[in-house]
Amino acid sequence: MAELVLKTLTKVYTQAQSPAVDQLNLAVRDGEFIALLGPSGCGKSTTLRMVAGLESVTAGEIRIGKKVVNKLHPKDRGVGLAFENYALYPPLKVRDNLAFNLRAHGLGAKEINRRVEEIACTLQIQELLDLKPAALSSGQKQRVNMARAMVRRPSVLLLDEPLSHLDARLRVELRTEIKRLHAEQRFTTIIVTHDQLEAMALADRIAVMNEGKLQQFDTPLEVFNHPANEFVAGFLGEPPMNIFRAVVADSGRLVIPDTDFALPITPGVKKLIDSRKELKLGIRPWGIRVSQTQTDGSVPGKVAVVEDLGDETRVGVRYGEVLIMSSIPVTRRYRPGLQVFLRFNEEDLNLFDSITGERLSDGGYEANQTAPETAGKNEIQAPVSR
Questions:
Q1: Which stretch of DSSP H or E encloses residue 49?
Q2: Neighbours of 17 (CB within 10 A)
Q3: CA 172, 176, 179: angle at the middle one, nearest 5?
Q4: Does some domain include residue 386?
Q5: Domain total of the chain
Q6: Which of 259, 231, 186 is nearest to 178 (CA)?
Q7: Tens of pLDDT along 165-202?
Q8: 322 and 191 in one domain?
Q9: Residue 97: what pLDDT?
Q10: Exposed (0-12), middle (13-18) or buried (19+): which is 54, by Cβ within 10 Å?
Q11: Rounded to a whole number, what is the largest CA-CA distance in the chain?
């Protein structure tokens, strides 16, 4: 196990293209579990392949422990890689698949057998050792794939979307297994995934990437609750954060055009907004209350979509030209076309720059209110004249 440091790591395939990875800086602590998360084409797999030595580095530095490994052959870097497509040797039994790299490194037969039996016990694949890959299920192949990467006792364990080919039940099962193994083995681990739930469940910290650039690197809850920008806010969460265009009205309120939504601009929020006349408002679905009863500060809408998911119900409400997604308890029933009223929890509102997409607030809209205590809590007011 070792610390992994990426310093201004860059990969350019052709000069006519934008960098696949653009000056990436990342420091992974010894024994830490990191997720590289982002959409297809964001550069996460390219980053993993550069760490493994399967891709050359255009610029920057990769350091494992105290050693710069840019020029080292993959076998000399001390990394273990579990491939997305398993990449097991079909003619060999599972036992020989696990022993292959150990033999290549010159270990004796006794030590090889000991390590193979040990990792097979850890991953609960003892009964598979004398079978060939063709006789294994997808879940069993992935266990063998991970065992082959771990049997070398690498300084850094790299997992390239190891669960993407599995069905939902097996994904949950192996996700739990990976978490257990990391708690026991404490390999410095990087997993590449586009599945946000997988990243949230497994990682100590998440590095969110887009178009080759690092967007945010923090703990799962911090990335989820305090996204660094509009991209992170929209990428994490299922359904994603609702994001609306808002303008600063002459009345000193934030309004969503063509709706009755109006939010008082307190001194703290005014400082954040500065001279901006337009920005973005973001709120998670569970920060929106849906009711058939109108209350002070609520705004009207019409149910457009209802998704019953068993453990929750998602309701899409048409509000003006905006479709707002809300998450509600399954005990409440709504049908398309029903008139409802929405109320936004100010603590869950986020402000984003309309041009750069960068987040303006540090702890939700309400956390930035610095009006005197005697002013009371600000309420969303609707309707208003503008």
A1: helix 44-52
A2: 8
A3: 140
A4: no
A5: 2
A6: 186
A7: 777 888 888 888 888 888 888 889 999 998 898 999 99
A8: no
A9: 92
A10: middle
A11: 83
What is the domain extent for residue 251?
A: 238-375
Residue 249 and residue 316 share a domain: yes
Low-confidence residues of the chain, pLDDT below 70?
A: 1, 16, 361-386
> Which pTM value belongs to this model?
0.84
| Amino acid identity, position 325 | M
**Residue 197 and residue 176: Cα distance in Å, rounded?**
12
CA distances from 78 to 36, 53, 152 (A): 20, 11, 8
The Cα 59–Cα 366 span in angstroms is 43
- Look up residue 231 and give its two tokens: 């991209």
User: Measured in Å, how far apart are the chain's first and last C-alpha atoms?
Assistant: 61
Cα–Cα distance between 50 and 83 in angstroms, integer? 14
Based on the fold, state whether residues 59 and 187 are members of the same structural domain: yes
Residues 254 and 337 in one domain: yes
Residue-level pLDDT at 101: 82
As given in the structure block, the two tokens for residue 366 are 């309400």
CB 174 within 8 A of CB 190: no
Of 202, 233, 264, the last residue of a domain is: 233
Residue 153: per-residue pLDDT: 85
Query: Residue 371: what pLDDT?
Result: 39
Total Cβ atoms within 10 A of residue 133: 20
Amino acid found at 220:
P
Instruction: Decide if 231 contacts 357 (C-beta within 8 A).
Output: yes
Instruction: Give the per-residue pLDDT at 142.
Output: 85
Domain identity same for 185 and 229: yes
For 316, other C-beta atoms within 10 Å of its C-beta total: 17
Which of the listed residues 233, 260, 286 is the one where a domain comes to its end? 233
Computed on alpha carbons and rounded to an integer, the radius of gyration of the chain in Å comes to 25
Residues in CB range of 168: below 8 A, 6 or more apart: none
Whether residues 114 and 223 fall in one domain: yes
